[in-house]
Amino acid sequence: MRALRSLLTAGALAATLLAAPAVTPATAAEGAPEPPEQSWSFNGIFGSYDLAAAQRGLQVYAEVCSNCHSLNLLHYRDLAGIGLTPEQVKAFASQFTVPQGLDDQGNPKDGPATPADKFRAPFPNEKAARAANNGALPPDLSLIVNAREGHANYIYAILNGYADPPAGFKMQDGMNYNKYFPGHQIAMPQPLHDGQVTYTDGTPTNIAQMAHDVVTFLDWAANPEMVERKQMGIRVVLFLVFMTGLTYAVKRKIWSNVH
Amino acid sequence: MAGLTKSDFKNPVVNWIDTRLPVFTMLQKEYGVFPTPRNFNYLWNFGALAMVNLVIMIATGIFLAMNYQPNTLLAFDSVQRIMRDVNFGWLIRYVHQNGASMFFIVTYIHIFRGMYYGSYKAPRELLWMLGVVILLIMMATAFMGYVLPWGQMSYWGATVITNLFSAFPWIGPKIVTLLWGGFAVDQPTLNRFFSLHYLLPFVLVGVIFLHIAALHITGSNNPLGIDVKTPQDTLPFHPYYTIKDSVGICVYLIVFAIFVFFFPNMLGDPNNFIPANPLQTPADIVPEWYFLPYYAILRSVPNKLLGVCLMFASILVLLVLPWLDTSRVRSARFRPIYRQLIWLWVLAVVTLGVCGANKPEGIWVVLSRVATLYYFLHFLVILPLLGKIERPLPLPESISRAVTGKGGGPLPTGAAATMEKP
To answer: Which residues of B touch A233 (CB under 8 A)?
Structure first.
């Protein structure tokens, strides 16, 4: 009993230590409201990616976001992770022209991308990206969901958060008002508009739907191992619980002649 | 005098080795029949847990180093390559990343146990001091490891922490230049941090060996804090404590696995998913959670040099703890006042941790100052005085009497360990 109490104390101490960073205010969203909680297919320990949504999200990325935002950490072959067949991956990759080393004369050569290629970036370098975007640099989206406080909810809120500035709010030149962006002035113009893309599966293309799909896609892009990880985790934890029970039973048996 | 050891092992191969190099005899003595107080509670698991954690960190670290590039242009992407393209790379990396947090959770509980039950008191002062050295090396290793992924918080954390040394007059800037290998955190910094991050864990192994060697000279403390007097007070380490530690290891692995598989980035900072950019400072530079209390002490003082000194002092004061605590009773169980105040100290540390996570404004400044004050007051004033004024409760005659309720109760054959000095 005494041992149990000590263990509880230790647990409480550990919990307090863990709670310390959890009480950190969402500093990134300072001066902006908390992004509302959305229900995501990938939430929770049993969550996995809604592949249809992720594939629609890929379409939104390819047709809208990729005009300015790179996805440098991804290769076309990775798209197998959201359920594309090898043929679909090949077909998707081949629409893009990417550098393919040197030709026989030593001149740089371009050609259609293969599954082994990295996603084509919209700009050759940071300077070119800034020059084309009023001095602002569109961030790479490979890890964007992990790299922002609020994660998927925040990205979704930004995509849906465009509005007219309140009366008296001073906007800088070329900036756009967004309810959820820290400071409310974002360089990115509203990227999504109703009916901007045409889904092949007939899903309505309003802003909320497209934002939901593209955020699902981007969350997968940032955490491509998530489904495998959670599934392995469930098996590992179940095994360890079984192992703990077994070990504890052996412990009781061994100690039974001492107590 | 040279000569072969007389070995009792029956197996001829084991016997042949043992007579020439008595490792089996040593293991049998130190981990087989080693007389261990019979009244350990589960808090005595945490030393073994820390050991397991170190092994996990070294094992995963070796595989990470096979794929990591200590180059400012490649480091960030090479870590992401591990996460995406290396077989089970995500698992190895998340175990290593969360293993650092687990290491500190386990070590902090281990330290708390030592403080609560007075494990640092005579004759275990040196054992305790070696433990403080281990903590310092651990902190240095963790700090340098956090720099390696070369994210925004890696870079700016490294900048802020190394810059602390510049507070020391005259020598300070020279130390900082030496740490950086230049005039800013850059390629040479990353290179030397990688090198040292690989080296220090093995230094840690050496100091931990001394820590355990010292433990096996004095023997373990126990929840009653009284000395082992008769063989009835002890049990052989194996199987009693090997199995009890195994239970603890299983529970520890469950907690570890929950972090790794379900919340791998919960204790991390989103900013570290952005590649290091020397031209753009993040809105808040916050260290990893296990450094937050020290960070709060640092920021609670308006003077930089004084803040840095206090921060270092907050750990170095532990080195002299055996002499600051004047009470001769070890266990808090028999110290009615200390038993309350130690929790106040824990509260001060947790408060400092919360303060460290928040911007030093308003209430957080006041709170961190009060907590810092109590942190040092506890060690420098309360403990020396308390030993003189506190009236401890009567101590039990012996461990076995306290556990069984009778003097040296009946023992199963072979359960009582021999009491030879190792």
So the answer is: 257-258, 260-262
- CB B353, CB B289: distance < 8 Å: yes
Complex prediction ipTM: 0.90
A224 to chain B: nearest residue by CA?
B84
Distance CA B258, CA B264 (A): 8
| Rg of chain B, C-alpha, whole Å | 24
Token digits of residue B81? 């390559």
Please check whether residue B156 is in contact with residue B272, taking contact to mean a CB–CB distance below 8 angstroms: no
A136 closest CA partner among A166, A174, A171: A174
d(CA B221, CA B227): 8
Read off the pLDDT of residues B83-105 as tens digits, 9 standing for 90 and up: 999 999 999 999 999 999 999 99
Q: pLDDT tens digits, residue range B286-296?
A: 999 999 999 99
Q: Is residue A147 helix, strand or coil?
A: coil
> Which contacts (CB < 8 Å, 24+ apart) does range B408-416 have?
B408/B230, B408/B232, B409/B232, B411/A258, B411/B232, B412/A257, B412/A258, B414/B236, B415/A257, B415/A258, B415/B235, B415/B236, B416/B231, B416/B232, B416/B234, B416/B235
Q: If you count DSSP H runs as helices and E runs as strands, how many of each does chain A have, helices first?
A: 7, 4
The pLDDT value given to residue B93:
98
In B197-304, the DSSP E strands lie at 234-236
Taking the CA of residue B249 and the nearest CA in chain A, the distance in Å comes to 9
Contact B415 A241 (CB under 8 A): no
Distance CA B312, CA B196 (A): 20
A26 touching B, CB under 8 A? no
Query: Chain B neighbours among A 61-120 (CB < 8 Å)?
Result: 73, 78
**Integer CA distances (angstroms), B384 to A72, B323, B381, in order:** 60, 8, 6
Residues in B touching A137 (Cβ below 8 Å) = none
For the whole model, what pTM was predicted? 0.91
Give DSSP secondary structure letters for B34-95: -EEETT--GGGGHHHHHHHHHHHHHHHHHHHHHH---STTTHHHHHHHHHHTSTTHHHHHHH
Crossing angle of helices B152-163 and B125-147, in 10° steps, is: 130
- Residue in B250, B267, B270 closest to A149 by CB: B270
- CA-based diameter of chain A, in Å? 85
Helix H or strand E encompassing A186? strand A185-186
- Asked whether the beta carbons of residue B109 and residue A222 sit closer than 8 angstroms, the reply is no
Q: What is the C-alpha radius of gyration for chain A, rounded to an integer number of angstroms?
A: 24
Q: What was the pLDDT predicted at A259? A: 67
Nearest of B390, B386, B367 to residue B377 by alpha carbon: B386
Structure token digits, residue B384: 């020396």
A111 touches A96 (CB < 8 A):
no
Contacts of B35 in chain A (CB under 8 A): none
User: Which pLDDT value is given to residue B252?
Assistant: 98
Catalytic center residues of B: 216, 220, 244-245, 288
Determine the residue among A247, A256, A257 to mutate to test chain B binding: the one whose Cβ has the most chain B Cβ atoms within 10 Å: A247
Beta strands, E only, B248-386: none
What one-character DSSP code corresponds to residue A178? Answer: B
State the Cα torsion B407-B409-B411-B415 to the nearest 10°: -50
